[in-house]
Design brief:
The protein has about 80 residues and is an alpha/beta fold. It has one domain: 3-Layer(aba) Sandwich (Rossmann fold).
Length: about 80
C-alpha cells in the first residue's frame, strides 16, 4: 500500500506522510477528503489551493464548507448532498 498525505495530527500505525501545510498536502492531490471542522479550511484560498491539485476536487465528509464561497475551478463533493459542479 502506498503512503498517503495527511495534514493534522498523525495517527499511530498509519503509513502516512504528515504535511506541514495545506499547500503541501494538496499539491498533486487527486481527491482530498476534508474530515474536520478546523476554521483554517473555511478561511483558505481555495482558488490558489485548487490550482495545486492534480484533480481540483474536494470530498467534504462533514459538509463543513457547504456555506463557504468556493471557486468554480474546484469541484465540491459534499457527502450526502448533491454534487456542486
Amino acid at each position: 500500500m502506498r503512503p498517503f498525505n495527511v495534514y493534522g495530527p498523525g495517527q499511530p500505525g498509519v503509513d502516512a506522510v504528515l504535511a506541514a501545510s495545506l499547500p503541501e498536502v494538496l499539491a498533486g492531490a487527486d481527491l482530498p477528503v476534508l474530515g474536520t471542522g478546523w476554521p483554517e479550511f473555511r478561511e483558505a484560498n481555495w482558488a490558489d489551493l485548487s490550482a495545486l491539485m492534480r484533480t481540483p476536487a474536494l470530498l467534504d465528509a462533514r459538509n463543513y464548507l457547504r456555506d463557504t464561497p468556493l471557486p468554480s475551478s474546484l469541484r465540491y463533493c459534499p457527502v450526502g448532498r448533491a454534487v456542486l459542479a
